[in-house]
Design a protein that fits this description.
Helix content is 32%, strand content 18%. The chain is of the alpha/beta class and 268 residues long. It has an eight-stranded mixed β-sheet with strand order 1-2-4-3-5-6-7-8, sandwiched between helices.
Amino acid sequence: MSEEFIHHARDGFPLAVQTGGPQTAPALLLLPGQANSHQWWDRVRGGYEEQYRTITFDYRGTGNSRGDLGDWSTTLFAEDAVDVLDHLRIRSAAVFGTSMGGRVAQMLAVNHPEQVSALVLGCTSPGGEHALERKAETRRWLAQGTRAEQQAKLYELFYTPDWPGTPAQSTLLGGPTMSPREQVGHRRASDRHDAWDALPEITAPTLVLHGTEDRMVPTENAALIAERIPDARLRLYPGGRHGFFEELEQEVTPEILGFLAGVVPGGP
């Protein structure tokens, strides 16, 4: 990341925007998971910045994007993304969204197809009645214990035992400055997402990625999305958990770069 500034969305909400990489390179919009800021991408962002101009923004209620709590939705977050791209005078961008960011990316590709040159969806779901949600016992298990214990449980869902980090070192486990009301606002936005009927309308070349051991967003959702989006490609990573794109970065980043190289106009 090389620059950060505040841009006000069309309703006046202040959005913190971050850019990195060469300004003349093709744009790559990175959309993080639920209740997370741009810091979600800290460990992997650099892998894209030799070839792409990376764009991120903090969702409402995260990082430096703070204001009144509203009726947040994945559609609203997608409109915020459009506002950011328009402000930067980016007519079209490749979009990589993970977890809730993948849901936001779906709405962006559905409602603004002209602004999405390529789409990468990681560890996400279509939402609605057709999606496979995490098991009830996993939800109950996550809700129990102190904050530190809950963070340790999240860490277990994101990383395999081979990952040499700690919960305190991860940037994927939620924005620490979010209020409980902001966290609920994000959870509602994600829970209400339903793109099932609209997915066949997506025209952008699409790559769907998922770890095979994801208990946060069950792996079966990847096949559902890939079957609904015309000509979508599907790639599963054996043993990968919800943070597979970080833990398996040496496999995932080249895969995405290779996909984008073949479909992004003017790309490297």
